[in-house]
Amino acid sequence: MIKKILIANRGEIAVRIVRACAELGIKSVAIYTDADRYGLHVKKADEAYNLGPDSVSGYLNVHRIVNLAIATGCDALHPGYGFLSENPELAEACEKRGVRFIGPTAEVIRRLGDKLQARAAMTEAGIPVTPGSEKNLESVEEALVIAEGIGYPVMLKATNGGGGRGIRRCGDAEELNRNFDRVVSEVSKTFGNAEVFLEKCIDNPRHIEVQILGDQHGKVIHLFERDCSIQRRHQKLIEIAPSPQLDEEQRKKIGKLAVTAAKYVNYTNAGTVEFLLTQDGEFYFMEVNTRLQVEHTITEQITGIDIVQEQIRIAAGLKLRYNQRDVKKRGFAMEFRINAEDPKNDFLPSFGRVTRYFAPGGPGVRTDAAIYTGYEIPPYYDSMCAKLIVWALDWDSLIDRASRALNDIGVYGVKTTIPYQLEILKSPHFRSGKFDTSFVESHPELINYSVRRSSRRLAAALGAAVAAHMGL
């Protein structure tokens, strides 16, 4: 078994991995930049090492991180998500230096990280994909010809992108012509690669993804699906497992498609196969995330399987402990990404000091967080500061419990998305369980109301503070 793991990440996911290591009796090593010197992952890990003042690039230096893993006696490295988690160079460096990479092989990461290669592989495997370009676009003129052939609307996408970035919908030739250079520029700055492709846009789909696990002995299973349709500008806000929108026949179909896709590319470790579900009930392959997902937590809640521990066991060469028939789902789970953002100001990041923080509790409530009272949220990273995960036996009970938990959680000193997420839960459209990726844009009144509600809560909190100070 693996004895010591370097965690090449930060924040709540690093804390999550530290906890998995502790339960397995594995030593954990954290890394951090100067901006993260007071990070919770630094406090929780068995050892921690400073990468210096480079707030972002410190976490992106492949060879320095692998050298550190070797120098500290680590026999494995976990990349978490974001940063280098889908970088084949990290997996290659680990393999060359004799460090186990807790993820798929570099070859698989490279193949599936290129959206065009991934689409080609899925087509070969018999997985339905949306019509689109078969190679990277050389010019806007080429894009216009392809778009005319498949019909508008279309989507311009970064070939090597991820995280909802480098995507632009084009409803007609004028929009495509206007957006082409913008997307190329955006993906060049974000991913260091100007390659883009085009595919048919499916309007108002449901975003359904399937969690898979594959060992090094050829076995692949799925852990059911998650519904990630509640998103803003391609960034997920709320995730649900299993999807309240699928019947059992659809659930079996999408699970089988995901396993078929994973087996075709010899996938190992944890991953997520993402699909779009049309209004007509058809599934289309979108992409494979070759890493642990932010929302893995809700799959753990409904199946009872610790995905991070399974990742470590697989990397150690052990066989999967479960057959497909052993994997059962129970109830529903929902995850809320608690972002330090201001809903009333176009979700502008709200970094700063957390003056007071307390987590909710009670049955079926879990919090994965990187914050604590007095913690200074640095402005250099993603704005997500905590994840609230709620489980219940049925859909209606889940919404009720989630509302209670969101009201219980306390994050003061910075603005958060909590008031807005509470309003989403109140929406009859959301409670019906029949929503798609257009939900946020088609319900602007929820943002407006959450802003008013947040202001009232702030006023009440200030009034209470003044009263306490005066001894009233």
Overall pLDDT metric: 93
Q: Give the CATH level 1 class of the largest domain.
A: Alpha Beta
| Tally of helical runs | 16
**Intertermini distance:** 60 Å
What is the multimeric organization of the chains shown? single chain
What are the SSEs and their pairings?
Blueprint: E1 4-7, H1 11-24, E2 27-32, H2 40-44, E3 47-50, H3 62-71, E4 76-78, H4 88-97, E5 100-101, H5 106-113, H6 115-125, H7 140-150, E6 154-158, E7 167-170, H8 173-191, E8 196-200, E9 206-214, E10 220-232, E11 235-241, H9 248-264, E12 269-277, E13 283-289, H10 296-303, H11 307-315, E14 332-339, E15 341-342, E16 348-349, E17 352-353, E18 356-358, E19 365-369, E20 376-377, E21 384-392, H12 395-408, E22 410-412, H13 418-426, H14 428-431, H15 439-442, H16 444-469
Parallel strand pairs: 1-2, 1-4, 2-3, 4-5
Antiparallel strand pairs: 6-7, 6-8, 9-10, 9-12, 10-11, 11-14, 12-13, 14-21, 15-16, 17-20, 18-22, 19-21
Helix pairs in contact: 3-4, 4-5, 7-8, 12-13, 13-16
Jot down its keywords:
472 residues, 22 strands, Rossmann fold, eight-stranded antiparallel sheet, Dna Ligase, domain 1
Notes on the structure:
The chain has 3 domains: 4-102, Rossmann fold, CATH 3.40.50.20; 131-200, Dna Ligase, domain 1; 206-458, D-amino Acid Aminotransferase, Chain A, domain 1, CATH 3.30.470.20. It has 16 helices and 22 strands. Helix 12 (395-408) runs antiparallel to helix 13 (418-426) and helix 13 packs across helix 16. The longest helix has 26 residues, at 444-469. With 472 residues, it is an alpha+beta fold. The model has no long low-confidence stretch (mean pLDDT 93). The strands form 6 sheets. It has an 8-stranded antiparallel β-sheet with strand order 13-12-9-10-11-14-21-19, with helices on both faces. A 5-stranded parallel β-sheet has the order 3-2-1-4-5, with helices on both faces.
